Input
Amino acid sequence: DRDFVRALVTATYGRLKEYDALIAGSVSKWDRDRLYTTDIVLIAMGLAEAETFPGIPVRVTINEYVEISKYYSTPKSHGFVNGLLDRLIKERMASGIIKKNV
Output
């Protein structure tokens, strides 16, 4: 749906610097420049979706971005996207940044 995509892109772009810093700070064993750009974008979009659309269950959001990473990223990216997105969403839910109705 066009409105959904527009809202998702707007939310992601509006917080991209914040998400990039969050991701970089969460992978302290890796240099930010070594991370695959597609993975960073997918994780940022997953965070934006979780924050912007309270009616979409967290598991659905995570699974969508894991599946996308299987097609558009490296062979091992789906595990990275799954683990980091899951952890970041849980942290943001615990701090009240992400609020879910479902």
In short: The mean pLDDT is 92. The chain has one domain: 2-94.
